[in-house]
Amino acid sequence: MWSRSVTARVRSQNKGENVMFYSSIKKLVQYGLETGLISEEDRIYTTNRLLEVLGEESYEEPEESFEHVDLEETLAELLDFAAEKGLLESNSVVYRDLFDTKLMGCLVPRPSEVQAKFAALYQEDPKKATDYFYKLSQDTDYIRRYRIKKDMRWKVDSEYGEIDISINLSKPEKDPKAIAAAKLAKQSGYPKCLLCKENVGYAGRVNHPARQNHRTIPLTINGSPWGFQYSPYVYYNEHCILFNNEHIPMKIERATFVKLFDFIKLFPHYFIGSNADLPIVGGSILSHDHYQGGNYTFAMAKAPIEKHVEIKGYEDVEAGIVKWPLSVIRIRHKDADRLTDLAEHILNCWRGYTDEDAFIFAETDGEPHNTITPIARKVGDFFELDLALRNNITTEECPLGFYHPHAQYHHIKKENIGLIEVMGLAVLPARLKDEMQLLAEYLLNGSDIRSNEVLEKHADWVEDFLPKHPELNGENVMEILKEEIGKVFVGVLEDAGVYKCTPQGREAFLKFIHTL
Question: Measuring CA to CA, which residue among 245, 246, 322, 283 is closest to residue 419?
């Protein structure tokens, strides 16, 4: 039998744990009140919802009051409690994310409430509506602010303007157990993909994120139902996604330009663009028709027209070649319909265009290669459309794509050049953060980079730029690395340009434009 003192200590310990648990519950409810996710009338209801999710039947309101609640810290406390209680299959980031999203779902307004408030604010001002929805998407933890702020971001000057560089650290690395479980998990066709409307409120599973805290706004685009949401990874300010309510493949066509301008007319303070519709030069999700936009001015948007051109039949439309590493035609007019007509004409001509001297092939062995990455915006009274000409042909020397980052840059960027990169924002792999730190140590110590299996892929690059930086020291080594990484990304963009920024390249570009 336990002694009375031991029993008392156990009761005291349990009471202490309960007090901490109750405090965490109260803090999360207070967070909901502070952010406006819930109102005072919802306090008891929300508390009981959280207790239900955590499998608890009793609760004692702590006397202590809380303010300026730290969401990450509070969720961590409740997740630790859930793990100790055996509510998580594994105490790893995948299962913790599934569970904390379930907790946050207790605080999020119903879709109809969110949509009604958005609609009311939109009547006042479209920007008020998007400000509300963007804040909501962060407050609900759908956009995890505390992870996004871990991303590394900097700017690099170039001959094309100020280029944005980012190292994406906000996507958590899956642990081996979760990866194994995902492989063994039964494949579900619901939702069909991460962009489908059925994600709203979905509980998630080991191979699909939970979305109880996810909300979307219905829009009518080109006469059909679409949804508007924010990206959970926020590569730039107010990074939003416009998605078709139907799970249909992406396709660049006349209707694409109509949809882009329909969105711009609704939200003139945003830009919107589309990934190309072919592999290699397209985005990561080609199976679901969608576009990406936001409230950010990229370097490409700031880049000037370096040579104006006149296109027969469209003499009233301002047009020209943009000073940009990719091959971009910019067209401007106050009438969006005129731009839609011209964009369709340029697209159709480009689809079928071949110039063997410039290594442009419309198709090989029946496989089409030419497409366009379009970006729309409104500047003052003018609608503006940038059309980046793309080609996904491969060769024996460039099996990943001839107009794709070449092998010399793969140590930094090997992935596809999609819409975001086209506009001038590098989204680089998380591995580079640690590699930069290690590389800095090797450079300062004069160590042999080729002797390290992690760093040896950077050796040729370092040998090329190091002689240019005799000033390198402990204070500036990271800035030098950032600058040189920026130069690599500019080279990547130049590789993706079907016409190079040379006299011969511009001559070939104008040759195509003259066919219009």
Answer: 283
Q: Is the pLDDT of residue 6 over 70?
A: no
Q: Are 332 and 213 in contact (CB under 8 A)?
A: no
Omega before 191 within 30 of 0, i.e. cis:
yes
What residues contact residue 60 under an 8 Å CB cut-off, 6+ apart? Answer: 18, 22
Mean pLDDT across the stretch 443-451? 95
Structure tokens at 505: 């390249």
Parallel, antiparallel or unpaired: strands 382-391 and 370-379: antiparallel
Helix, strand, or coil (residue 205): strand
Contact 336, 260 (CB under 8 A): no
Distance CA 261, CA 331 (A): 13
List alpha helices for 185-271, DSSP H: 254-266
Strand arrangement, sheet containing 425-428: 152-158, 161-167, 425-428
pLDDT above 80 for 333:
yes
Is residue 282 very low, low, confident or very high in pLDDT (cuts 50, 70, 90)? confident
**C-alpha to C-alpha distance for 491 and 495, rounded to whole angstroms:** 6
The whole-number pLDDT of residue 1 equals: 45
For residue 177, CA distances in Å to 90, 92, 162, 170, 328 come to 8, 9, 42, 20, 45
> What confidence tier does 12 reach under pLDDT thresholds 50, 70, 90?
very low
Residue 472 CA to residue 172 CA, distance in Å, equals 33
Q: Are 393 and 130 in contact (CB under 8 A)?
A: no
CB within 8 A of 120, min separation 6: which ones?
none
Locus of tokens 């027209």: 305
Whether 253 contacts 150, CB under 8 Å? no
With contact defined as beta carbons under 8 Å apart, do 202 and 177 qualify?
no
Mean pLDDT of all residues in the chain? 93
Side chain identity, residue 477: V
Calpha distance 403→493 (Å, rounded): 9
